[in-house]
Amino acid sequence: MANLKDIKKRIASVKSTQQITRAMKMVAAARFRKAQAAIVAARPYAQRMQQVLAFLALHEDPEAHPLLQQHERRGRAMVLALGSDRGLCGGFNLNIAKACEQLIGNNPDGFDGFELVVIGRKGREQLKIRGLQADQVYEDITAEATYATAALLGQEVVQNYCAGTCDAVYLIYNAFFSAIRQEVVIDRLLPIAPTVPIAPADTGFPVHPLYEPTRGEVLASILPKHIEVQIYRAFLESMASEHGARMSAMDSASKNATEMIDRLTLQYNRVRQTVITTELVEIISGAASIQ
Question: What per-residue confidence (pLDDT) applies to 141?
């Protein structure tokens, strides 16, 4: 049986840990509110741009721009996985790793191989645990992901696709719904897939798009911009999901610490009661033997 001193030390240790988890929850909550406001503000623009580009892809000749072209060969596909640099956020990175494993294992489009690009140190570690080796890792950029960072990454993706280094680009990230709900999304970023609307009135787009100044200039500007915007949106979704997951994880940890403290306190009182009872019995027995 554990003695009183050991139990008391353990209670103090759990209380100290609980103070840390509560502080981390408060920090995560503050960052979560900021990240939530950012993704709510960015979503309408990103979604509308995605609709516009899908509509243009439906009506444009694929030869008008390399980003509209479907590569006939099925060589290598790039998988861009957005994880985190910091841990203690529940299954945030584990779910990303599982989605990467599923996509690469199933290989629905029949590619010969995959190039795995991972954002975040913890994301890379989870992939390594599951036997997936990252070809390229970007670390220390998830804490404050800016549009400039997303733009640089988007430019690299566009260059690789146009040069034929990869024949498709998939984007895997945690989509934000609420502080307690995040869902992993696998988007095919390139080539830009056309969508068929039910009716032109449903989209608000004209049947035949008009370009100003020229079609070539507009496509050369808006298509790479679209890739940058979608990557930036994924960054914001991932940031909000990470802070929400960490806030939930720290809240659960704090509650578990409270339950553990209660159990240890009960154990401490029982042991203390046993010690007192034993001492009383010894005193009474000693007094009786003297008489």
Answer: 86
Distances from the Cα of 193 to the Cα of 67, 126, 168, angstroms? 10, 30, 11
- Of 133, 113, 116, 115, residue with least CA distance to 125: 133
Going from N- to C-terminal start, the domains of the chain cover 4-20+256-290, 25-249
- Phi and psi, residue 31, nearest 5°: -70, -35
pTM of the model: 0.85
Quick check: 220 pLDDT over 90? no
Count of C-beta atoms within a 10 Å radius of residue 153:
22
Residue matched to tokens 């989509």? 175
CA–CA dist 167, 88 (Å, integer): 35
Class of domain 25-249 as given by CATH: alpha beta
- Two tokens at 280? 């009383």
CA distance 28 to 89: 10
Strands of 76-82's sheet in order across: 136-138, 113-119, 76-82, 168-178, 181-190
